[in-house]
Write a structure and sequence with these properties.
By secondary structure, this protein is of the alpha/beta class. It is built from six helices and six strands; from the N terminus they run βαβαβαβααββα. The termini are far apart.
Length: 181
Amino acid sequence: MKTLALFRHAKSDWSDAHARDFDRPLNGRGIRGAAAMGAHIGALARQFDRIIASPAVRVAETIEIASQHWDSAVAVEWDRRIYLASSAMLADVVRDMPDQTAALMMVGHNPGLEDLIFDLVPQTPACPLRAMVEAKFPTATFALLECAIDRWADLDPGCARLIALTRPRDLDPTLGPELLD
């Protein structure tokens, strides 16, 4: 059994129309969301053997803020393949992980993270959390999957169970959408 955590970057700033997408920082709500989610992840007291992440500025800032609230000596590994990657690419990145990694956290972007959940977690009435992902996988959302595999190379569609899903608005309603997020 392997554990895969998927953490979407927090809300980014779109105020500079000339900034490259890669270079967009977090906005105020994003900073608050990253801190709230970091505290939540810390309270889960889960240890991750490896953290891999997109090197985009908004991802790096999300990790910098969130990691102040969890106890981990694991260094973040920046992987350019995660930046705006498809579900297929993200699955390939996960499959490249060494087998001694039991618990992996990936920090990245949508729609790739959301689509990866759809690929890995079968759609059944027994999984109401998947239905929540279908409705929306907002910024700074944290998902925890149990994968029924012994080796990451065996990651295949339908191999996982979504055991936890937390959105920023679940922790603080002011971090939710004004109308629709």
